[in-house]
Specification:
It is built from 11 helices and 15 strands. By secondary structure, the chain is α/β, with parallel strands linked by helices. It has a 4-stranded mixed sheet, sandwiched between helices. A 4-stranded parallel sheet has the order 4-2-3-14, with helices on one face. Helix 4 links the parallel strand 2 and strand 3. The radius of gyration is 21 Å and the shape is globular.
Length: 376
Amino acid sequence: MREKIWLSSPHMGAQEFEFVKEAFDTNWIAPQGPLVDGFEKDLAQFTGAGHVAALSSGTAALHLALILLGVERGDEVICQSMTFSASANPIVYQGATPVFVDSEPDTWNMDPVLLETAIKDRLVKGKKLKAIIPVHLYGMPAKMKEILHIAARYNIPVVEDAAEALGSVYNSNACGTLGTLGILSFNGNKIITTSGGGALISDDETLIQDARFLATQARDPAPHYQHTHIGFNYRMSNVCAGIGRGQMQVLPCRITQRRAAFDYYVRALGGLPGIQFSQEPAGSYSNRWLTTILIDPRENGGISREDIRLVLEKENIDSRPLWKPMHLQPVFADAPAYVNDVSEDLFNRGLCLPSGSNLIPEQLHRITALIRGLWN
């Protein structure tokens, strides 16, 4: 069988090992240390965020964000429906209820019109809304101007899930820096990785200081172990931060490479009947973390998303349907949802193509030739 082409594999640079070696040479292995501090400064400088807490995962970052905003049992948190489950799971960790809002067709992210409909309806029902979680899906910025305007009108904090959007920009602002808090992910499939890891970012220094405190088991300042709060083991290790520092040096290049892969796909496949690519709205710049396509069998003689996926799978090429919306997931069957069928249609017709920054031209040609063969 031919060599596997992954959907989005890690892509190391030249400096990661040197930073990790520094961690070993200095014996700074634990979940704190100078490389953690340095990685936080790197992220703050790159995004323009005032303050950063480097954590063990993006999920941990979102969990802490909800704790800091006072989300607790009986509360509700509005969450984008079309996303990975990690956007919604921390709501349940807190005993709160996720309220799912469907997508708009331009960016595939949270529909501002449905958002306001959901807020009004939940308030009429006497519910306590503690936060709104929009997601910048596949690196495409959500309609944050409208979302933030609505959130301000009803005095609800916004937590940006920018797990897929490091390097994406909305109206000259880095994604993740527009809300009260933003979260980043450095999972192995993201645009840069620390093997696992995430970050919580904000311009509010107190929130980030509190996040660091909670993330290190909430140890009070005392000569003995004393705790007045429930804490978590969520801090990033110095070793992982070393990988992150090396990855930050190649991040601009990785964004360029991902966008180049998207452009290649558009040139090779854009003229085929029934294939549609997502477009950047005015003022938005996507890191193109994953290249995604929509397939309409009515326009191409019956070729479906699954036909393409199976042809690629047979040739050892990784591709994947778009996220299955949360309101369609069995685990959230009883959660309130405000839907317009956009995300369900996207899930039924959409496919993520291999998008790693380490793809070579021969691999891109192989992928697109197989897809084009279905049209011949």
